[in-house]
Amino acid sequence: MLAHIVFSTKNRVDLIAPEIEEGLYAYIHGIAENNGSKLIVGGGTANHIHLLVSLPKKIDVPDLIGDIKRDSSVWVKEQSTKYSDFYWQKGYGAFSIGQTQVGKISNYIKTQKEHHQTHNFESEYRAWLNEYEIEYDEKYVWD
What we know:
Layout: E1 2-8, H1 18-34, E2 38-44, E3 48-54, H2 61-79, E4 93-97, H3 102-110, H4 112-115, H5 121-131, H6 138-141
Antiparallel strand pairs: 1-3, 1-4, 2-3
Helix pairs in contact: 1-2
């Protein structure tokens, strides 16, 4: 299964600094590998990330995302005391995609910084929920 996973920092605070970004995605790659998954591409901005992941049959999406969020949060905090307040939001979005969409989604993830010069995270996330026809209540989406 291929999944496009999206989640933000708690309250969408800009905490993913350029100096830790490359290391963060490398660390997430290792977490995915340890779970028998493959991180195809990861990218985002200072307040959220997108991951395109290939998942094996033996792991549930919530378990993988839980491991990624928990372990990467610890890793970020270990980088410097200035990240001591780093947390991921409670929720996440996980959207299944087909093999024919890999190129499009990969490019979308790689160009997040450019994309977010004109679109904020909240409008982007709503668009994904609407595209996948997921019913939602705003009071439960943002934490």
